[in-house]
Design goal:
Layout: H1 9-22, E1 30-34, H2 39-51, E2 58-65, H3 72-86, E3 89-94, H4 103-122, E4 126-128, H5 133-145, H6 150-153, E5 159-160, E6 167-169, H7 177-186, H8 203-219, H9 223-249
Parallel strand pairs: 1-2, 1-4, 2-3, 4-6
Antiparallel strand pairs: 5-6
Helix pairs in contact: 1-2, 1-7, 2-7, 5-8, 5-9
């Protein structure tokens, strides 16, 4: 455990989570770290830069420039420079956001396409993304509000195996957003504040800024953790059900 005197507790918590995620990868592997420059991805990148060399793992920070905001190229370049200062290799890739559907979904699809392409190029064993427990709670709550089925309410998996062999890893799914901000502050890292994350036109922003805080205030603390546990329990149930079906078929 990271309990050395002087080591900030938030930094230690993020590092432990990243260390646990990297243990499933072979020594000498290459990983992509999705880096927007925000606090979550920046804390993830810093922890990866610290933990990956211990296992001989090469970390490549990738910042995707969607070109949707003024100054996006400068924002991406700053994020890449920060990653390099941490000891990671850094790349900036431009993503083409296709028209149609919601802007959030379109940007997300373009981002993953760009990350996938670079993962294939460098032979990455995994793509690390900085989704937190807060993101998970928001996802479950949005699914409930939309009347989605159990599959949607399972939220995001900490490990997503893919046919191409490159995993999606979410080491921070049990860590609160406040912790990633604290970890950045403790390490002197200055995260980028995406104005889209405060724009009430987006449903997720309203959930984050209004709905969840209201639930916490009216029902007591722990709502976000409870929603995240619900997602984990549904994933476990689905996995057990799938195994049962496989046994019956055999």
């Amino acid at each position: 455990m990271d309990v050395r005197p002087g080591l900030d507790s938030a930094v230690a918590e993020v590092r432990r989570a990243v260390r646990a995620a990297l243990q499933a990868l072979p020594e000498g592997a290459t990983v992509i770290v999705a880096l927007s420059g925000g606090a979550d991805s920046l804390a993830l990148a810093a922890a990866t830069a610290f933990e990956a060399p211990k296992r001989g793992i090469r970390g490549v920070a990738v910042t995707v420039d969607h070109g949707l905001q003024d100054g996006s190229a400068e924002i991406a370049a700053t994020a890449a420079a920060t990653a390099e200062s941490l000891g990671l290799s850094a790349r900036v890739v431009r993503a083409v956001v296709r028209a149609g559907g919601g802007p959030e979904a379109a940007a997300r699809d373009a981002r993953y396409e760009a990350l996938d392409a670079l993962a294939r190029e460098v032979g990455a064993a995994a793509i690390l993304v900085g989704h937190t427990l807060d993101d998970q709670a928001e996802t479950v709550l949005l699914g409930l509000a939309r009347g989605s089925g159990a599959t949607s309410l399972q939220g995001m998996a900490p490990v997503a195996e893919r046919e191409d062999g490159c995993r999606i890893l979410r080491p921070l799914l049990e860590i609160r957003r406040a912790t990633t901000h604290a970890a950045c502050a403790a390490q002197g890292l200055d995260p980028w504040l995406d104005p889209h994350n405060a724009d009430p036109r987006y449903t997720r922003v309203r959930v984050r800024e209004t709905v969840l805080p209201t639930l916490e205030r009216e029902l007591g603390p722990g709502v976000a953790e409870a929603l995240a546990r619900t997602a984990a329990q549904l994933r476990e149930d689905a996995e057990a059900f799938a195994e049962m079906i496989d046994e019956i078929i055999e």
